[in-house]
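step: validate -> pass
step: tokenize input -> pass
step: predict -> running
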Amino acid sequence: MELGELTHIWLIICPLVFLGGIIDAVAGGGGLITLPAYLLAGLPAHLASGTNKCGNAFGTFLSTGRFLKRGDVHYPSAVAGAVGALAGAWAGARLNLIVPEQVLYYIMLAVVPVMAVFLLLKRDFGQEDRSGQLSRGQLMAMAAGIGLIIGGYDGFFGPGAGTFLMLAFTGLCRFDLLTASGNTKVANSASNLASLVTFALAGEVLWSVGIPAALCGVAGNYLGSGLALKGGAKVIRSMFFVVLALLLARLIYGLFV
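step: predict -> pass
step: emit ->
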């Protein structure tokens, strides 16, 4: 690929990956912006999915490090979620290489509005940590299941996976939003790593685009994770609605355009 063509692609992708990194670090769902950016730049679907994982993975690693440093993570369940996400994302990425995405669109079109209504009605969602109501074994089993299922979704389709992880860790494991966000970063790092390796081994990563995009993703995630850590549940909850609206628009566009 010639430098002129690469420069054109960088100008489209890099600013959008930076913006996606900010959103992803706060409430997940940065892939709703970054994946369409690769398609807009002209990359084929599978190559776009693989290169998108390269662009996003390293930013997620940085966000994870910041949450771990602050201690806003429940370590046993985070590790269990990461193990489940590794397995799920590997299986999902393998499916992505052979199966069309349309089947997921219909499921998600039904799920996303329900989640938005739930968040609107339940205003105290994620305000308090109630995970003490569950035993350590229950938390770890639930976290592993969450990682496996949503990690599979992340490897296969991707956009919105971080948001679903955060909602699941809050709603099912009963963590507050900040701790759920920390656990999400750990699980998402694992799923991104498994997906990236799978796509890379299949030759579906364009490194000349993915590496510059990764640098922009790191910068966006650094800024976004700072906003999440300082603003806590209020900032995260507000960003949820932005992400769910983007996801709904992305699904409708994918089905009908």
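step: describe -> Residues 47 and 204 are 5 Å apart (CA to CA).
step: cleanup -> pass
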